[in-house]
Structure formats: structure tokens, C-alpha cells
Design a protein that fits this description.
Number of helices: 10
Number of domains: 2
Shape: elongated
Strand content: 15-25%
CATH topology of the largest domain: Jelly Rolls
CATH superfamily of the largest domain: Regulatory protein AraC
Number of strands: 7
Keywords: DNA-binding, Transcription, Transcription regulation
CATH class of the largest domain: Mainly Beta
Helix content: 40-55%
Radius of gyration: 29 Å
Protein name: AraC family transcriptional regulator
Order of helices and strands: EEEEEEHHEHHHHHHHH
CATH architecture of the largest domain: Sandwich
Structural class: alpha+beta
């Protein structure tokens, strides 16, 4: 097993830098002391004793030390190690593979950070001065505990991040859902239930992000779809159903209020513009697109 993992320590003075390269394996970097930053692919994150950095195979990053210096402890997991220490029902290779990033800094609570550094220290000592009594078994156990501890910390942090980020992401998900289901009834209470949030929360977040109510956005999205279908030659009698209006008169009223012309008039304008300016798809209307 010793061939499948590598331990290294990198003390950096204030302002010092270290290039980190995961190469063909997984790279886990713990911070023993000090602080600094990790930079990768145009992004950066702070490093401190309560954080670890993870680099997927092929990823590279640069660590820079702050005013107090920075000491990094590196665990390199070579190809095949995760498969070797996995057990039935716990595929560690698969656990690492679903992590949706090439490089990331994960925040830990003090207890978990201390535990990971303790396990690393014990593995470092045993690797440098192996005990003759069941040394291989002991080292294997320490590696397994260290890897499992890193994964557990990452999963816990991902759960917390998901709960915080849910408020930001839900509106983007609603945009996509609405545009994919315009022909269906789209009520605030039903959308809130679909995304597991309260109607009040969804309405508030939507208003903050878009400056308009959910109902206003749905109407504009449906009218925008109407224009596309009109210029594609879809019959008026079919458009109102495909766009989710309760009837033709409801579509006619909303369309004229938004664009200043009836759907039939718009279709004629569309045909005329297609003849005069074939490179342009849509005629000008009174208001901008939704």
C-alpha cells in the first residue's frame, strides 16, 4: 500500500508559493498552521487551519502564504488505492468521482480539522518509523480513516452549502421549469410545492430576482412563445393551447396589450418582414421581449 499514497509537508514563509499538481491521482491538502490562499482556474479561496483543499486527477493550483506563513500537509492518493481500500457497499472511488469540481477548498469545524491532522500525523510517524507488529495493517487502517474522514467532511459541507445555495438556485430552476411547461397550468402554489418551498418564499425571491411577479413572468413567457409560433406559421387556433392560455380571447387580449397589435396583425407583419428582410426573424413591436 505504501506505493499507492505519498505524504509530504510544505512549510512556506510569508509570501511564499507552492504549485500543487494532482497528476493522475487524488490530492488532499491539509493546513497545519498559518493562512494563505489557493488559486486555480481563475478562482481563489482562503486557506486556514480549519480548511482542506481537494484536487481531482489532472487539476493544478497554486498555494500562497499569508503574513504568518503557511504549512501544508499533502496526501497524494495514487490510482488504484481507493479501489483497494474500498469495501462492499462503500466504493470510495465512486464517492470521489461524484464530487462536482476539479479543485475546491472545504471548510471544516475545529473538531474535524483537528481529527484529520491527528490522523495525518499518526500516518506520517508510522510511515517514517514503521512498527514491526502489524505495521501494514495499522497503516492501512490510518489511510482508510483519513480518506473516510475527508469524504465525510466534504459531504457534510456540501449539505450545508446546498441548503444555503438553495435560495439562490431555486429561481433559476423555476425559469427553466416554466419555459418547459408553458402549455400547462402554472400556479404559484403548485410551483412552490414542486420545488419544496413556500409560496411566499418563491414569490419573494422571484420578485427580488426579476423585478416582476411570477404571474407577470409567465404571461410574458407565453406571449414570447406565441410570437415564435406565429412566425413559424402555426395556426392561431392551436397557438393559445400550446402557450397555456385559457382561450383564444385571453391570448388576444394579452397579446394586444403587450405588443400593441393583434396576433393576426403580427403574423402579417412577420410575413411582410420575412419577404423584405429575410435575414431578420421578427418584426419590431411596441415593447421589448419578455
Amino acid at each position: 500500500m505504501e506505493e499507492r499514497y505519498r505524504l509530504k509537508q510544505w512549510p512556506l514563509e510569508a509570501g511564499g508559493e507552492k504549485e500543487l499538481d494532482a497528476q493522475s491521482g487524488q490530492l488532499v491538502v491539509l493546513v497545519n498552521r498559518g493562512s494563505g490562499r489557493l488559486q486555480w482556474s481563475g478562482r481563489s479561496a482562503a486557506l486556514g487551519p480549519d480548511s482542506i483543499a481537494l484536487l481531482r486527477p489532472g487539476a493544478a493550483a497554486r498555494a500562497s502564504a499569508g503574513e504568518q506563513g503557511l504549512e501544508l500537509w499533502q496526501l497524494r492518493l495514487q490510482q488504484g488505492l481507493l479501489e483497494e481500500i474500498s469495501c462492499p457497499g462503500c466504493d470510495l472511488e465512486a464517492c470521489f468521482s461524484v464530487v462536482p469540481f476539479q479543485c475546491a477548498v472545504v471548510r471544516l469545524n475545529t473538531q474535524n480539522a483537528t481529527l484529520l491532522r491527528r490522523l495525518y500525523s499518526m500516518l506520517q510517524k508510522e510511515t517514517e518509523q514503521p512498527d514491526a507488529l502489524a505495521g501494514g495493517v495499522y497503516r492501512r487502517g490510518l489511510v482508510e480513516l483519513l480518506v473516510a474522514g475527508v469524504l465525510r467532511c466534504c459531504v457534510n459541507e456540501e449539505r450545508k452549502t446546498a441548503l444555503v445555495g438553495r435560495k439562490r438556485l431555486v429561481v433559476d430552476e423555476v425559469f427553466a421549469y416554466i419555459n418547459a411547461h408553458l402549455a400547462e397550468p402554472l400556479q404559484l402554489k403548485d410551483l412552490a410545492a414542486h420545488f419544496y418551498v413556500s409560496p411566499e418564499h418563491l414569490a419573494r425571491q422571484f420578485k427580488q430576482r426579476t423585478g416582476q411577479t411570477l404571474h407577470q413572468y409567465i404571461i410574458k413567457a407565453r406571449l414570447s412563445r406565441c410570437r415564435e409560433l406565429l412566425c413559424n406559421g402555426v395556426p392561431l387556433s392551436a397557438i393559445w393551447m400550446q402557450c397555456g392560455f385559457s382561450g383564444y380571447s385571453a391570448m388576444l387580449r394579452s397579446f394586444k396589450q403587450e405588443f400593441g397589435v393583434t396576433p393576426a396583425e403580427y403574423y402579417r407583419q412577420c410575413c411582410q418582414r420575412a419577404r423584405e428582410y429575410p435575414e431578420e426573424a421578427l418584426p419590431e413591436t411596441k415593447k421589448s421581449d419578455a
